[in-house]
C-alpha cells in the first residue's frame, strides 16, 4: 500500500460529551458531493477488481475511485491511497495512514483507530498541509472520559467548522 500526498482534514474536538458521533460529527468534508455511500459507489464502475474488498466496502470506508489505476481518496479527509494488495482491508488502511480522519473515527471508533495505530506504529504517515497544530492547553476542556482522544492518539489538531453538514448515519 502506498499513500498519495494530499491536503486533508483532521478532527475538531467537540465540547459535548457522548459517543463518537457527537465527538466526530463529520460536518466539514473535503468533497461534500461524495457524502453518501451511494455517490461514492458510483465512482467504482471501472474499479480494477484486484483486491478482495468490495466496491461497497471501499465506499463505506469513505473512499471514492479516482479512475486512475487503483487510486482512491477519502471524501472527508482527502487522504489518498493506491497500490492495494489483495487482502488489505479498507478500514484498516484508512485508519493506518490517516488516523485523524473524522469519518473513520466516527464509524469505527477511537479504540479501533488506536489499535490500528499501535499495530502499525512505524508507518510513515503523511503530514497534511491544511492542518493547524494547536497546543493541547488551547483545546476546549473535555470531559475526563474523552482525554484519551488527545493523549493516546495525540489528536491535538482542530479545524475550523463550516456550515456544510454531512450526516452519515
TrEMBL record:
Sequence ranges of Polar residues compositional bias: 1-17
InterPro entries reported in the protein's UniProt record: BIR_rpt, IAP
Region Disordered: start-end pairs: 1-20
Matches recorded under SMART domains: BIR
CDD domains (UniProt xref): BIR
Any Pfam family hit: BIR
Entry protein name: Uncharacterized protein
